[in-house]
Amino acid sequence: MPGSRRREKESFPPPPGMYRRMGREHWKKIWIGSAGNMVEWYDWFVYASFATYFAGAFFPHGNPTAQMMNTAGIFAVGFFMRPVGGWLLGRVGDRRGRKAALTLTVTLMSASAVLIAVAPTYAVAGYGGALVLLLARLLQGLSVGGEYAASATYLTEASDPRRRGFASSFQYVSMTAGQIVGLGLQIVLQRTMSDTALHSYGWRIPFVVGALGAAVIFYLRRSMLESEVYEADATGGEERGTLRALWAHKREALLVMALTMGGTVAYYTYTTYLTKYLSNSAGLPKRTATLVSFTALIVFACLQPLAGRLSDRIGRRPLLITFALGSTFLTVPIMTLLGHAGGFWPALGLSLLALVVVTGYTSINACVKAELFPTGVRALGVALPYALANALFGGTAEYVALWFKNAGAESGFFWYVAGCAAVSLVVYVTMRETKDLDLTRVKTAPKSRLTPAS
């Protein structure tokens, strides 16, 4: 990865008054660019947070852990569709514009939510219901595979160059907000419906809500403005958004995969998997485990802009390195203590500690990746390698955790998470700083070369 340093660093001088009040137009772009992201990730995470209620609906009765593993396996399959979505929708984003890609992704997500809401159970259609669930997850993977990159690229390009870290941090604010809404709805349903009703039909309600939310965001995105950086760029021609163009920046693509590895495993461990871990391993009631996750995620969302703004001042690498060090050395003790948390407050305190560490990655990873590529291949350059890393590490995190648990060696998963963070730490230490890069002057590699521009 050190070889990625060879590309010339184009920078701009930091002007005085760096943190003047952002204009209404900037906030509008941030809102529209991230609001759809919230709905996308609401649907994505609702599947995981409600899995404990519908796992038994699609598979034969028996070992609850085996049912959860089957459901988690389908969840992981969605991640393996993300590279396809990253390629297809990244190409759309680079050739047709960020607006076109963002509109298409939210349409696909709405369709997948409807499919899950109406999927027949095992008692009605045997494994036919599981096949419908699988199809819906494939559509979700396709959609989210493109959404992340289109949103990251749009928020990075549409913001003030001196505030890219702050603006792009709202991607994880919106992602986390989607999960908070999902968990909030789960808390409401848990307190207004019986456990039997939730297992029977109540779990379908959040997917209906997700489909309706996607329809609203589709309307908003039809009127969104294209980023000025994209509109001003006229280079690339027919090779915009192609794999050939991306190959010319293969070092940067590999860098995206490597720096994503530790972050995505840690993120999914302390968000998607946390509620199940507190319930199944720590022995907390489902309601208490859900409330812990809900409260911790609210604080986590509030931390993102603060960390993003800090990165605009001191750089991206210090935050990434801090995250990797914390995850490498604190994951095992935090997860071990969480497994013995006897109540709400100990579990919340440990969860917050873990999420504060993860903030060093989540708050700025979108802009760091977007800053590595020229405009003509930026969406694809972020989408495909990020989706590949998520398919290999993020999407499988929950399944790996349950596999270790089923094998009677649950602590092995803790060391797995720490090991992934250690690999990313090496990358963060050796990569170049991207804070002062001018997106309008990042060079496109010559057609005759198959190596990154230098």
UniProtKB/TrEMBL annotation:
<feature type="transmembrane region" description="Helical">
    <location>
        <begin position="71"/>
        <end position="89"/>
    </location>
</feature>
<keyword id="KW-0812">Transmembrane</keyword>
<keyword id="KW-1133">Transmembrane helix</keyword>
<feature type="transmembrane region" description="Helical">
    <location>
        <begin position="170"/>
        <end position="189"/>
    </location>
</feature>
<comment type="function">
    <text>May be a proton symporter involved in the uptake of osmolytes such as proline and glycine betaine.</text>
</comment>
<keyword id="KW-1003">Cell membrane</keyword>
<protein>
    <recommendedName>
        <fullName>Putative proline/betaine transporter</fullName>
    </recommendedName>
</protein>
<dbReference type="GO" id="GO:0015293">
    <property type="term" value="F:symporter activity"/>
</dbReference>
<feature type="transmembrane region" description="Helical">
    <location>
        <begin position="253"/>
        <end position="270"/>
    </location>
</feature>
<dbReference type="Pfam" id="PF07690">
    <property type="entry name" value="MFS_1"/>
</dbReference>
<dbReference type="InterPro" id="IPR036259">
    <property type="entry name" value="MFS_trans_sf"/>
</dbReference>
<keyword id="KW-0472">Membrane</keyword>
<keyword id="KW-0769">Symport</keyword>
<dbReference type="InterPro" id="IPR020846">
    <property type="entry name" value="MFS_dom"/>
</dbReference>
<dbReference type="InterPro" id="IPR051084">
    <property type="entry name" value="H+-coupled_symporters"/>
</dbReference>
<feature type="transmembrane region" description="Helical">
    <location>
        <begin position="376"/>
        <end position="393"/>
    </location>
</feature>
<feature type="transmembrane region" description="Helical">
    <location>
        <begin position="201"/>
        <end position="220"/>
    </location>
</feature>
<feature type="transmembrane region" description="Helical">
    <location>
        <begin position="413"/>
        <end position="431"/>
    </location>
</feature>
<feature type="transmembrane region" description="Helical">
    <location>
        <begin position="41"/>
        <end position="59"/>
    </location>
</feature>
<comment type="similarity">
    <text>Belongs to the major facilitator superfamily. Metabolite:H+ Symporter (MHS) family (TC 2.A.1.6) family.</text>
</comment>
<feature type="domain" description="Major facilitator superfamily (MFS) profile">
    <location>
        <begin position="29"/>
        <end position="436"/>
    </location>
</feature>
<feature type="transmembrane region" description="Helical">
    <location>
        <begin position="319"/>
        <end position="338"/>
    </location>
</feature>
<feature type="transmembrane region" description="Helical">
    <location>
        <begin position="101"/>
        <end position="123"/>
    </location>
</feature>
<feature type="transmembrane region" description="Helical">
    <location>
        <begin position="129"/>
        <end position="150"/>
    </location>
</feature>
<keyword id="KW-0813">Transport</keyword>
<dbReference type="GO" id="GO:0005886">
    <property type="term" value="C:plasma membrane"/>
</dbReference>
<dbReference type="InterPro" id="IPR005829">
    <property type="entry name" value="Sugar_transporter_CS"/>
</dbReference>
<feature type="transmembrane region" description="Helical">
    <location>
        <begin position="290"/>
        <end position="307"/>
    </location>
</feature>
<feature type="transmembrane region" description="Helical">
    <location>
        <begin position="344"/>
        <end position="364"/>
    </location>
</feature>
<dbReference type="InterPro" id="IPR011701">
    <property type="entry name" value="MFS"/>
</dbReference>
